[in-house]
Specification:
By secondary structure, this protein is an alpha/beta fold. It is built from seven helices and ten strands. Helix 1 packs across helix 7, helix 2 packs parallel to helix 4 and helix 4 runs parallel beside helix 5.
Length: 273
């Protein structure tokens, strides 16, 4: 049992989560970190080999929608903050079967929020400890040929995956307005980088090109994407977690006007300096 303050990461064996864990433990040596992951097709402990043997890293194999498991984590560790990555995130899979997306993305978020609320209320720290929900720009729907999303763009999800993430966002925001819980949300554009699942667009294109196979074209090939390097995204998450205003949402990408951090290509909209 460890009663030293610890940061709880959910879904930390996945693409963005594993990059954030390695980033965080390097930047903040000595900090305790707990990772809950179900290890579905998108998560692998191999993504965390460089931190597996650290005394400050603790892995819990389990589902965030499992109330007993999540409650036990809060009982065993003094959780001082949560960064919630865990989510089912494959659009086509959500269309084929929406149930896992509803269970993980909506119910799982609710289980985590309630466990954190009860633990932090009991300790008198509800407004001081932070719950950071990692969302997606897909909650805004399709952008069209011009313009850009902002934090004030109305939600317009177009598939079960994005609808489940929009529902989770609203649930997180409700804990701020109802209980005064210290929450922040961030949504990013498309990520790329090490440990990305090979089903995603850029790994698919690279793999096809190296094999001299035809590269798939989606739609008419004229779609535009904002591509964000995962390491830059990790810096942005760190900044939002530590400096974001309670109850606020932040969009992260490379096509916005305000440059922040030390990354010349990274933009975080609506973020305090």
């Amino acid at each position: 049992m460890s009663k030293n303050p610890a940061l709880l990461i959910t879904g930390g064996a996945g693409f963005i989560g594993s990059n954030f864990i390695t980033y965080y433990l390097k930047k903040y040596p000595g900090r305790q970190l707990v990772n809950i992951d179900k290890l579905t097709y998108a998560g692998s402990r191999e993504n965390l080999m460089e931190v597996e043997n650290m005394d400050t890293y603790h892995f819990v194999h389990g589902d965030v929608s499992d109330e007993a498991l999540v409650r036990n984590v809060f009982n065993e560790f003094d959780i001082e903050g949560v960064v919630h990555f865990a989510a089912e995130s494959h659009v086509d899979k959500s269309i084929a079967d929406s149930k896992p997306f509803i269970l993980t993305n909506v119910l799982g978020t609710g289980v985590l929020l309630e466990a954190a609320r009860k633990d932090w209320e009991k300790k008198g720290l509800l407004s001081k400890r932070r719950f950071h929900h990692i969302s997606t720009d897909e909650v805004y729907g399709s952008l069209g040929g011009k313009g850009k999303f902002t934090e004030h763009t109305p939600y317009n999800p177009s598939n079960p995956y994005s609808a489940s993430k929009a529902g989770a966002n609203m649930l997180v925001k409700s804990y701020y307005t109802t209980y005064g819980m210290n929450v922040v949300l961030s949504s990013s554009s498309n990520n790329y980088g090490p440990r990305q699942h090979d089903e995603k667009l850029l790994p698919t294109i690279i793999r096809k090109a190296l094999s001299l196979e035809p590269i798939p074209i989606y739609g008419d090939g004229m779609n535009v994407r904002d591509w964000l390097y995962v390491g830059d995204h990790c810096e942005a998450i760190d900044m939002v977690f530590h400096k974001g205003k309670a109850g606020e949402s932040y969009n992260v990408g490379v096509g916005m006007k305000k440059r922040t951090l030390n990354s010349p290509n990274l933009f975080v909209n609506n973020l305090i300096k």
